[in-house]
Amino acid sequence: MLTKFETKSNRVKGLSFHTKRPWILASLHSGVIQLWDYRMGTLIDRFDEHDGPVRGVHFHKSQPLFVSGGDDYKIKVWNYKLHRCLFTLLGHLDYIRTVQFHHEYPWIVSASDDQTIRIWNWQSRTCISVLTGHNHYVMCASFHPKEDLVVSASLDQTVRVWDTAALRKKTVSPADDILRLSQLNGDLFGGVDAVVKYVLEGHDRGVNWAAFHPTLPLIVSGADDRQVKLWRMNAWEVDTLRGHMNNVSSVMFHAKQDIIVSNSEDKSIRVWDVTKRTGLQTFRREHDRFWILAAHPDMNLLAAGHDSGMIVFKLERERPAFAVSGDSLFYTKDRFLRFFEYSTQRETQVIPIRRPGSTSLNQSPRTLSYSPTENAVLLCSDVDGGSYELYIVHKDTMSRGDTVQEAKRGGGGSAVFIARNRFAVLDKSTNQVLVKNLKNEVVKKSGLPIATDAIFYAGTGNVLCRAEDRVVIFDLQQRLVIGELPTPFVKYVVWSNEMDSVALLSKHAIVIANKKLAHQCTLHETIRVKSGAWDDNGVFIYSTLNHMKYCLPNGDSGIIKTLEVPIYITKISGNTIFCLDRDGKNRAMIIDATEYMFKLSLLKKRFDHVMSMIRNSQLCGQAMIAYLQQKGFPEVALHFVKDERTRFNLALESGNIQIAVASAKEIDEKEHWYRLGVEALRQGNAGIVEYAYQRTKNFERLSFLYLITGNLDKLSKMLKIAEVKNDVMGQFHNALYLGDIQERVKILENTGHIPLAYITAKVHGLEEVAERLAADLGDNIPSLPEGKVPSLLMPPSPISCSGDWPLLRVMRGIFEGGLENMARGTAEDDEEAADGDWGEELEMVDAEDFQNGDVTAVLEGAEAEGDNDEEGGWDLEDLDLPQEADTPRASLATRSTVFVAPSPGMPVSQIWIQKSSLAAEHVAAGNFDTAMRLLHRQLGIKNFSPLKSMFLDLHSGSQTYLRAVSATSVISLAVERWNESGAPNVRAPPALVFSFSQLEEKLKAGYKATTAGKFTEALKLFIGILHTIPLIVVETRREVDEVKELIIIVKEYVQGLQMELKRREMKSDPVRQQELAAYFTHCNLQTPHLRLALLNAMTICYKAKNFVTAANFARRLLETNPQVENQAKTARQVLQASERNMTDATQLSYDFRNPFVVCGATYVPIYRGQKDVSCPYCSARFVPAQEAQICAVCDLAVVGADASGLLCSSSQIR
């Protein structure tokens, strides 16, 4: 049993397959009807208008309808396209058990617990017949697939066959009046339209199901007496099939094989042989009783409903075993080995391969292996738990195909030819491969490197071994593993013609690898992958249940065509795909390979092929354009596109200003002109920038363009235009750009800013004007600042006065040249139009011709138009602007060589972080977010506020800034680490402002401050070291170890000093003071500092009359051999005094005999064996309650967080 699809739901009582689509309806005990796509495994729709369980459901053969019947006594007819119930048929008086559409007439038959069967006309929505006769619940009723018969089963222990011929004559073709009259008499005087033809009695209990054979005059029934009975149509009982252990729920004939399938409340599905009347197979479920069976009308699919859902399954595999060898195909069909020749497309039957009479399920060969030189065929099947058969095909029997040959047999689930006259057999029990000769004798045994469940051919002398999660190529001669690759569970292996690539097909994935199993790409499919083959160009063509697809060597894939039925691809020759279908028939399909050949040519950079395909084929569509864009060929995509907006976008992307201008003219929208201006500015094409700004009347940008290009003539014209438009701000800006003081004074005066006008005139030495304005101001003359020397505000000198920027000369690419010539050849006019004169739309005249009269005319025009809001009162096209050498266009030099903008180089900051996992280098490059992510992953750091200033210092210290020209912004340059042996053109990593030597200096300073008792200062230094370490980079592994050692040293000091400072704050709690002093002595300090800590603790405890503890500190102090005599003397005195009175006045939470560490947050001892958590960065230890808090020692990391560890050198990565 091959389960294809399974659902989990309420109890399934009714099932129906759709005839064409991969759909199945399931009606549930909860009242819901589900519509599933069993191929995709998705729920498409649900219908829930019934009140109570729905026991029957059925799809119409051709209309988008289905019918359902439920415990609410209602029959509902639904349209699944409209997602609603069309109408309800009422008439039954009890639960409805089954419903079914007639295959030809507009009828529905229904069976009910009201002991009747009703036939309805769903077009007229009426009941046309009531079949009475059963005297208990009618459990099922169904039409015969060809004749005018209905079979029904009832709990009255009978099966009845009803004749509906009279009903057909009456309702379908009342031909003449006489017939109508007889019908009328029949209706008036109780004529019957459906009569009982046979009553089948034989069951001892109620009958649950009865079904017709699709072609033969047979009926099968299943009942509560646990028996399945086979009947002839004339009520003759043929046989009884016993085996079920509980009520038989449903039973049916298989459409294509001589078998009966039944299911039961004993939680099993049983398959029976009709001819032998014996059980073939039993499939059981653990906990679920079965209720219903359904068969697909055309395909080899069955479905069964049970207590917790349903399953769609096949009884046998339909994939024929086949092997391709050169021009020939060997395959199995109907217990024969067959041979097909591709060149002549002729097929012949070779030999019978199974003894007649061995009809058990799933015994057909699974795999076929062929040795062409010896003409030997090896077939593997699941018989006897896995076995093989070896046939030698003689040339003279090839055409006859009737010679019965006794095969050489053996056990083993997998067998393949590995040489001319040798084949390998897998022995799963010992995990060995047995190499045998053609006499079926073992020649050699070889153990396998992995637990293998199947072997495949992998070249002469090699086998590909499959395990659950990997495949291995194993050389049987040298007993070496040639290659290994982790994969999903592999079902089929397809080698390319030259054996240099292999496709590993699993249920929902395809893995492509080379001959040594080096991974190339993986494709994932939602629908099951069925087969595949390689074409001559190295493209893998494969089929899923409903598509034929291609896979390019780089992993790009696409659909070639949709399939009606699944196929098994055997060979690809040019555009012809040879395949086997599920009936074992050879088919040849012609496909259109243009799309994938085009993509392959692009991939392999065969641009001549690409060119010819563009010229000759009809490749188009959004998908192809998107593909070309994605792969970096927008200039090629341009030649597929007719839509101007798409052309414009592609032209901008490929830097083709000419086409962009032509498209912008066609579209003529403000946004497109603006984007064209931005791109032209990027390329330095000032003429087109100007043209684009003119088209959008973007005067501010135009003025600025003229300023930076130094075009003062046009700037003065812009001043006049602003005056005409009465744009005061524009006038003032233009005057400012021109450095025209008189104009600025005039504008300020005209707008009423007299004080500003006076100051401007006065500062610039225009005394006459200043005096006149002073007279107007009277007493309100603004005072000028004293002692200041005014400087003249002049416009900056232009960056470039020479028009367009000089462009880099590059070689014309194959596409630019070829496609251009092609365009010329096909459409000279278009080329001319695209390259036409842009200036004609703007009637420009030379600056010399722009006389005062023209301006006056413009002014008059503006006045005449008045307040016309629609057009804004002034139109650019009506104004004679200065001439710009005809239309702005790409310079002739670029036209002839086709300029292609060079791709911008990668910024150094990006190079620094490209392959670096060092946080410091990411900070230097300015990528703070990735640096923070790295530090979080490596050291568990979450609190970055202490590092903020260091990040900024590190970033600014890795850059230097140069000022090139006064008018331009500063240029930042990356400062790289000096490396004498480095290659000249390879960028070095960044120079960093923090170094390990600096930290060593800081450590010494911290020691010095600790010795001097400046604990706050020392703590600041030590914490500074802890905060700097994540941002340093060292060269060697030895230095890495030193850095890690430094973290431990500094952590001990930080924790100790924090405790000491805390102790000094706690004047009111002498007990806690003593504890903290005691804990301080257990920090791993330098010996001089440890002596001072011991002396301190000893003094405090002695004063508090804790003599036992004080004596302990005195002993530990003397053990360090103190150099300062005063320390030793004090210790000896305390020891003597304490030994005379060995008592402690107060109980301390301190046990010096039991090893412990101190919690870095609560300062309590954590004794050996107690649970604790640690900081992933500084490794300080904490009580479990501190987990997920910020570490109190380093103030950076999260206590207990997962972290990979400190990474501070590239040597760690190598």
UniProtKB/TrEMBL annotation:
<feature type="domain" description="Coatomer alpha subunit C-terminal">
    <location>
        <begin position="812"/>
        <end position="1214"/>
    </location>
</feature>
<comment type="function">
    <text>The coatomer is a cytosolic protein complex that binds to dilysine motifs and reversibly associates with Golgi non-clathrin-coated vesicles, which further mediate biosynthetic protein transport from the ER, via the Golgi up to the trans Golgi network. Coatomer complex is required for budding from Golgi membranes, and is essential for the retrograde Golgi-to-ER transport of dilysine-tagged proteins.</text>
</comment>
<dbReference type="InterPro" id="IPR047312">
    <property type="entry name" value="Coatomer_alpha_WD-assoc_reg"/>
</dbReference>
<dbReference type="InterPro" id="IPR015943">
    <property type="entry name" value="WD40/YVTN_repeat-like_dom_sf"/>
</dbReference>
<feature type="repeat" description="WD">
    <location>
        <begin position="89"/>
        <end position="130"/>
    </location>
</feature>
<dbReference type="InterPro" id="IPR001680">
    <property type="entry name" value="WD40_rpt"/>
</dbReference>
<dbReference type="InterPro" id="IPR006692">
    <property type="entry name" value="Beta-prop_COPA/B_2nd"/>
</dbReference>
<protein>
    <recommendedName>
        <fullName>Coatomer subunit alpha</fullName>
    </recommendedName>
</protein>
<dbReference type="InterPro" id="IPR010714">
    <property type="entry name" value="Coatomer_asu_C"/>
</dbReference>
<dbReference type="InterPro" id="IPR016391">
    <property type="entry name" value="Coatomer_asu"/>
</dbReference>
<keyword id="KW-0677">Repeat</keyword>
<dbReference type="GO" id="GO:0030126">
    <property type="term" value="C:COPI vesicle coat"/>
</dbReference>
<keyword id="KW-0968">Cytoplasmic vesicle</keyword>
<keyword id="KW-0813">Transport</keyword>
<dbReference type="InterPro" id="IPR050844">
    <property type="entry name" value="Coatomer_complex_subunit"/>
</dbReference>
<dbReference type="GO" id="GO:0006890">
    <property type="term" value="P:retrograde vesicle-mediated transport, Golgi to endoplasmic reticulum"/>
</dbReference>
<dbReference type="Pfam" id="PF06957">
    <property type="entry name" value="COPI_C"/>
</dbReference>
<keyword id="KW-0963">Cytoplasm</keyword>
<dbReference type="GO" id="GO:0005198">
    <property type="term" value="F:structural molecule activity"/>
</dbReference>
<dbReference type="InterPro" id="IPR020472">
    <property type="entry name" value="WD40_PAC1"/>
</dbReference>
<dbReference type="InterPro" id="IPR011048">
    <property type="entry name" value="Haem_d1_sf"/>
</dbReference>
<keyword id="KW-0472">Membrane</keyword>
<dbReference type="GO" id="GO:0000139">
    <property type="term" value="C:Golgi membrane"/>
</dbReference>
<feature type="repeat" description="WD">
    <location>
        <begin position="47"/>
        <end position="88"/>
    </location>
</feature>
<dbReference type="Pfam" id="PF23953">
    <property type="entry name" value="TPR_COPA_B"/>
</dbReference>
<dbReference type="InterPro" id="IPR036322">
    <property type="entry name" value="WD40_repeat_dom_sf"/>
</dbReference>
<dbReference type="Pfam" id="PF00400">
    <property type="entry name" value="WD40"/>
</dbReference>
<feature type="domain" description="COPA/B TPR">
    <location>
        <begin position="611"/>
        <end position="771"/>
    </location>
</feature>
<feature type="repeat" description="WD">
    <location>
        <begin position="200"/>
        <end position="234"/>
    </location>
</feature>
<dbReference type="GO" id="GO:0006891">
    <property type="term" value="P:intra-Golgi vesicle-mediated transport"/>
</dbReference>
<keyword id="KW-0653">Protein transport</keyword>
<feature type="repeat" description="WD">
    <location>
        <begin position="241"/>
        <end position="282"/>
    </location>
</feature>
<dbReference type="GO" id="GO:0006886">
    <property type="term" value="P:intracellular protein transport"/>
</dbReference>
<dbReference type="Pfam" id="PF04053">
    <property type="entry name" value="B-prop_COPA_B_2nd"/>
</dbReference>
<keyword id="KW-0931">ER-Golgi transport</keyword>
<dbReference type="GO" id="GO:0006888">
    <property type="term" value="P:endoplasmic reticulum to Golgi vesicle-mediated transport"/>
</dbReference>
<feature type="repeat" description="WD">
    <location>
        <begin position="131"/>
        <end position="163"/>
    </location>
</feature>
<feature type="domain" description="COPA/B second beta-propeller">
    <location>
        <begin position="337"/>
        <end position="581"/>
    </location>
</feature>
<keyword id="KW-0853">WD repeat</keyword>
<comment type="subunit">
    <text>Oligomeric complex that consists of at least the alpha, beta, beta', gamma, delta, epsilon and zeta subunits.</text>
</comment>
<keyword id="KW-0333">Golgi apparatus</keyword>
<dbReference type="InterPro" id="IPR056176">
    <property type="entry name" value="TPR_COPA_B"/>
</dbReference>
